[in-house]
Design brief:
Layout (H helix, E strand, L loop, with lengths): L2 E5 L4 E8 L2 E4 L9 E2 L1 E4 L4 E4 L1 H9 L4 E3 L11 E3 L2 E3 L1 H20 L5 E6 L5 H12 L4 E7 H8 L10 E7 L4 E9 L2 E10 L4 H15 L9 H17 L5 E4 L10 E4 H7 L1 H17 L9 E5 L6 H11 L12 H13 L9 E5 L4 E5 L12 E6 L4 E2 L1 E8 L7 E8 L9 E9 L9 E8 L5 E7 L5 E5 L9 H12 L2 E2 L5 H16 L2 H20 L2 H20 L5
Parallel strand pairs: 1-10, 6-28, 10-11, 12-17, 14-18
Antiparallel strand pairs: 1-2, 2-3, 2-4, 5-6, 5-7, 8-9, 12-13, 13-14, 15-16, 18-21, 19-20, 19-23, 22-25, 23-24, 25-26, 26-27
Amino acid sequence: MRILGIDLGTTNSACAIWNNGKAELIPNRLDKLLTPSVVGIDENNEVLVGESAKHRLVSHPSLTASVFKRYMGSEYEFKLGKRKFSPVELSSLVLRSLKEDAEAYLKEEITQAVISVPAYFSDAQRKATKLAAELVGLKVERLINEPTAAAMVYGLHEKSDGAQFLILDMGGGTFDVSLVEYFSGVLEVHASSGDNFLGGEDFLSVLAQKYLSDHSINEKKLSSNERQRIFEMLNNAKHQLTYSQNVTVEKAHKQQEKPWIIDRDLFLKISQPLLYRIQTPIERTLSDAAITPSDIDEVVLVGGATRMPMIRSLVSKMFRRMPSGNIDPDLVVAMGVAIQAGLKEKQSDLDDIVLTDVCPYSLGTEILNHNDKSGKQGGLFMPIIERNSVVPTSIVKSLCTASDNQKELKVCIYQGESRLVKNNIYLGELEVEVPRGPKGKETIDVRYSYDMNGLLEIDVTVDSTGKTYHKTILNTPGTLSEKEIEASKVKLANLKFHPRENESYRVLIARAEKIYEGALGERRDNIGNILYQFDQVLESQDIRDIEKFVQKLEEHLHLIEQESVFT
């Protein structure tokens, strides 16, 4: 049985398998290796995923959702028309599309997967990712951190023993830093850090805010279509700045009276706060591992956002060397996940590699704060498993009663780094009965066990009685109850999906509609007439006529797009 490797990304997703001694990327129904992580509902109430949905972000923003990976593990909801979807449900629709593409390509059913997650994903976000897979019938054999997956593709396990590598992974929505060392068949992560709300989308946001400010446009007064059009045009400008020193945006909004020029220097200037945020996790990772930049043998860049020259320049200055980034940063994680899938399948052409990882956050419990006289501070956080502890790990600490005749102890479980528990993430609690007695007499041993998939188990033993208590953290914030999971499965099963064999037509129509929305006058009428003719040809169901018209429409749209708003 094949195990599918999946990179579930903020902006784009991809999948691959281990086949004939290498990672084999799987093309989607449009014969592309990247599937946009975008979900939409069309006029026929059918679900669209990927390219066709992405094209409708401008023309139908209220019926389309993107960047939902950022909200995994939260209770945030996306509204598509009259329907509401959780980030887990939207992610499951992307996974469903990838699963179908893989099954069509491999001509066999897929029920198992290895899925990548940002190294800095919390316990709740990891569980949400596994749940998204479960909703579409995929058993997750392992969650692998994205930087670790990338390290395997770069062959860091083939380097000399003791070599240390820093993996910097920035995609559309998240930024991860991982320090990796290879030694005697073990690829070990020593430390990791990151920012779950830092990525290419944030650089786009600062560019958009500059544009809005320069043209005195109030973002709150923009219609959803106007806002999406501005952001899409500026996103194209951002991409062009990777290869050009400056870009001219002719007209993204009616209040723009003359061409707007953005160059690399200005983009760099307005992006400084984001660049400072990039440095912080890098410095924390090096500090946690007690090493300096000169101790690093190689710096590897992963993720589409690392193509930006300002990021490459920043890294070069910090480490006084050029970073490595010769493998496609959009696909390297999917390739690494395929290697892990091959290891899970025990493929004979793969040398056995032991992967170790670390716990990205500290896990601990609440203890009494004797200095909180006013009651405003709340309890103190006592770490039990500290961040960057190698997993799997199991650590025990002792606690005692805090008052006379206390008959129970409440073990409150938190995740985070703050001294005060109120600033950390509450994961659950466990109530423990103890015999009455003077304060401090009764003691309990609290054991936290954390595994490679982010599963946290709590075991408590009362020393005087030997009684034990156990809790597995399942219902973290944003996860669903069993009843809610079943309801989601029913909801997703009842959705109508656009036929995969007609997906290329749907993408072409969405592309033309997007151009139509941005056109005026004669050009708008022209595109409208062509779309009307295409509808008629599709109704005829004559495949030869359809293919001829598709070629004609693609050529026409290409010519229009060549008359770019950028110079």
